[in-house]
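user: can you give me the structure for this one chain? tokens are fine.
assistant: on it. calling the predictor now.
[tool input]
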Amino acid sequence: MAVLLDYVFANAGERFDAFAMGTPEFKRAVSAWITWWVNQLRDWKIAPGRLGLLLVDEPHTRDQDRIIVEYAAVIRAAQPEVVLWEDPTWTNPAQGTPELFTLSHVLCPNLPMWLSRGPAFAEFYRRQRAAGRRLWFYSCSGPGRLLDPYSYHRMQAWFCWQEGAEGEGFWAFGDSNGASSWNEYAAPRGAYTPLFLDPHSVTPGKHMEAVREGVEDYELLRLLRDRIKAREAQGAADAAVTRARQLLETAATRVTAAMTSAALMEWQASKDRSVADRVRVELLEALAALDGN
């Protein structure tokens, strides 16, 4: 779904080594640091555009925004190909520092917040995407076993397609809170991983399988889009192409329409969990029809 990148959580602070933000020494040091890394990556045959930096995790205060802006301005000036990836958690993103958004290459809003904060929240990020920022979604609710594999794990990929997002993330595949997944009573704050982990094994459960199915759903949508483009480039305008185009334009909305609240991501919440499978069959049938013409 997303371009392969090597992501690093920089955990940036108000000082870089001995240098305070905003000073010439700070700017020179950060510039030299990121340039060293880009040169090292090139030695390893890794393009600088594959390096993604999360400077501050889940920024939601002016002070956190200021750190991001100070570092991002220097990094973009020194090595503009390096990807700056941020996951703001401002409940009203319009109150965030504007440069936080404009200096970021990728913005990754929290999907439960997207569902719960109303149209203004979503429209803010849609405008960011229209202005050139790339969009992702992530979710970090928990404990993981209480979340519905269908509406929490699988559905996120459908929202990615619907909103033009290029990637998705979940907190966190390795977070079992230090306990065996086979005895989560030992995890004092609950586990988040969609896997069953213990010191000796990794076992996919329903939650992990739902993540996989969501990625496959997204790829089916992409395959159908690309197949339609190829047929139209050949001058095709038959009924199969028309039906496929109509399906592509409505498929994601039909699947996500029931997700009117983040509360529906809880496993015990009543919902129709068959919609995505029905639409997936329609996508496969549309692909078959296009290939048969």
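assistant: here you go. The first helix runs from residue 24 to 43. The chain has nine helices and ten strands.
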